[in-house]
Structures are given as C-alpha cells and as structure tokens.
Amino acid sequence: MATKNLQLNQLTGEKTYTEIVFQKVWGRVEAYRKTHPQQKIFMMAFGDTTQPLTPTVVQALVDATNRLGDPKTYTGYEDITGNPTLRKAICANYYQQNLGIKLDPSGIFISDGAQSASVNIQELFAPDNKVAVQNPAYPSFVEGTLLAGRTLVNLICDEQNNFVPKLPEEKVDLIYLCFPNNPTGAVATKECLKAFVDYAKSCQAVIIFDAVYSPFITTPNIPRSIYEIAGAQECAIEIGSFSKMANFTGLRVGWCVIPEALTIQNTVPGELNHLWRIRHAVKFWGTANISQYGAIAALSSAGQKECQEVVNYYLQNARLLREGLAEYGLKCFGGVDSPFVWVKAPQGLSSWQFFEKMLQSRGIVGIPGCIFGSSGEGYLRLSTLGQREEIVAALENN
Questions:
Q1: What's the average pLDDT block by block, 10 residues per block, for the chain (398 residues)?
Q2: Mind spelling out the 3-state secondary structure of 36-56?
Q3: Is 318 helix (H, G, I), strand (E, B) or coil?
Q4: 370, 352 in Cβ contact below 8 A?
Q5: Could you give the CA distance from residue 43 to residue 196 in angstroms, rounded to a whole number?
Q6: Which position among 32, 212, 297, 345 has the lowest Cβ density within 10 Å, counted as fewest Cβ atoms?
Q7: Cα-flanking dihedrals φ and ψ of residue 176, to 5°?
Q8: How far apart are CA 374 and CA 133, in angstroms?
Q9: Concatenated DSSP letters for 245-306?
C-alpha cells in the first residue's frame, strides 16, 4: 500500500514561502485593489529581475539557436556536469580574474539556478546530519532541511549583531550562510567568515555558502566568496548564480563548487566531488545548452562589463529607496551591498501590520519579515530589482 511522504506533508497548508507569498501576500494585495481601484500599487515583494538580457548575451543566444536549427551544427545533450567551456569560464573569469581565487573546473557543477543546488546539496550528506540556518533566512534553506527530516538549529541574526550570526553553541554538521544576505542585505567580514571556517574545520562540518548576491558588494574588504578565506576549500561548498547579475531568472543557470579538497569524517579528498557527480548523473541531466551559451557570453569581457551595469542599476534603485524611506523616518538596513532593503517597522508594529501600513499609505508591497523566520518579526523586505520609474514613483506617492 502506497503512503504519503510525511516530511513533504508537513510543508502543506500555507507553510512554504511560495504558498504564503501567493496566498496571503498576493491575496491581501488583490483584496485591497478591489476596494481601492485608483490606488497605484508598487510591487517590491519579489526577487525577480526586470531589466532585459544584455546585448552580448542576446547575441550568444541567437547564435546558439541558429546552430541548433542547422542539422550540420545541431548538438543534443551537454556534459551533465555542465558545458566545459562554461565551467572553465567560471573558474578563469569569475573566480581567478575577479577574485584571485584558483579553482579547478572539475569542482564546478552547473545547475538550473541557485535554489535547486542549495537545497539538493543536502543529499550529499547523511540523514542524521544536524543543520544550522541563519534566522531570518532564505526560506528554501529551512524548507529543504525540514523536507529531508533533519534537525534544524537557528542562528539568530538581529539588529544587535548587525544581522550576522554567532557561531553555533552546539555541534552541527551543515551550516547555511548567505552573504550578502537575503533578506536582510547584511554582509560578513573576513574575520566573521574565518571564525565559521575554523569552526567547520574543527568539527568536520560543511558550510553551504550562498554567494548569489556577491556581485552586488561595493563595501571595501568584504569577501565576495567563502574561498577568500584560507582553508575554506577544505570545508565549504559555494553556490553561485547568473539570475541577478545577468537577469537570468528566466534562463535558469547557476552553479555549485565542490572542491577536491573538501572532506568530512568518513571521506578522502575528491570523494564528495565524485559522489555529487554520481548524484548529478542519477537525478539531473544538465541545464539547457542554449542557456549555458548565454552564461558563457555573460562571463566574457564585454558580457561582464554589461552585467556590472545591470548590477549598478539595481544598486542605484536600492540607494534611492533606502534614502527615500529614511527621509520618511524609517530605519533601513541593506541596500548597500544588496538589492534588498530591510525596513524596520515603526512604533512596534508587527511585520503584517507594517505590510498593511505600507500598502495602504504608499501602495508599496513587500514581504513581511516574519515569513523569513522568527527574528524577522517587525521588519519588511523590499526588493529593488524592479524598474527605476517604479522606485521613484513609490517614493513620490502620497
């Protein structure tokens, strides 16, 4: 007799981020629109990009499509770990050239975005491994842990510690770190990351480092990769993505790095890399080859220049929104090294009360901070990945 997956069942009934956003957040917006049809609504809830693909990427996609349309140049399946040229470009152009970090292409695995890589990577580890997650956190880290039936440990991030967690007080096996952080926009110093690397090495734990927003870092001396920390290749997996820096939210290309040097208690160097390669072959036969050609173009000299312009556009949005809200007396965090502005609710309002106040007074729609965890209560996350005109209009709206 077939029975349901009880781990999956515990995530039903408006318990996942997606369900809450589309049922409760969007539901409240639609209800408000019906009673206030003249009110202009400014959507700053979703982390979706709005700018077009850059010219270099578009040309690469057109060229790739034309090759696939010709029987003489048609190709089918790619290498399931990713297009070799793309994996080399990530190592040479993204890590070596930009960050001075030397990685081997054999450690790069191409995925269909950061979310699937960051959640699925748990399959590399034993079911009884204990997982530490920042609170507030990107919800998929928590949901993926619950889906796997693992014990979850919260690393509290609040205003008092600049939204950067302290080391776990108990022994854990996996540690999710996300910097620049989604939702708070906080960044971690080298000293902070070194402490986590030292902890992971001493406990033979593994750091799963979400670096999706690292291209947005502008503050000097803030690491853009966990591998800027000595010894991190022995204890950390890094997740990257083209979604935000190159507007690839529709093309779906990301990567994870599993260095040969990464080891845990019962492994030797290279073993975890090999095991992930096996898992990859069992469950995932590669990202769309057209999308990967676009990613290769994004890492070219011209492509990187264009992508930086995209990042600068969103950062300018963030600066305008942060400064504009501050003029209205609201306390804001993030928005400097991140496209997210983390706004503190005034007068002791709850996250949902603040959500309603911003919707009704300014037409601004964000995500209540409590959705990201208990430490997010009393905050609202606003995304600045939208159009400049919307940001300006929202601030001018009375």
A1: 85 78 87 90 93 97 96 92 97 97 98 93 96 96 93 96 96 98 98 98 97 97 98 98 96 97 94 95 92 98 98 98 96 97 97 96 95 97 96 88
A2: CCCCCCEECCCCCCCCCCCHH
A3: helix
A4: yes
A5: 36
A6: 32
A7: -85, 125
A8: 12
A9: TTT-TTT--EEEE--TT---TT--TTHHHHHHHHHHHHH-----HHHHHHHHHHTSHHHHHH
Cβ-Cβ contacts under 8 Å for 136 (sequence gap 6 or more): 157, 183, 184, 369, 372, 373, 375, 376, 379
- Beta strand 379-383 with 367-368 is antiparallel
Residue 101, number of CB atoms within 10 A of its CB: 19
Domains and CATH numbers, the chain: 10-52+303-396 (3.90.1150.10), 56-301 (3.40.640.10)
Q: Scanning the structure block, which residue is given the tokens 């606003």?
A: 382
Token pair of 224 as six digits:
């853009």
For Cα atoms 43, 44, 48, give the angle at the middle one, nearest 5 degrees. 95
Residue 57 CA, chain-centre distance (Å), reads 21
Q: How far is it, in rounded angstroms, from Cα 135 to Cα 130?
A: 16
User: Quick one: pLDDT at residue 11?
Assistant: 81
What amino acid is encoded at 169 in this protein?
E
Q: Are 247 and 215 in contact (CB under 8 A)?
A: no
Closest CA to 146 of 291, 250, 11, 254: 11
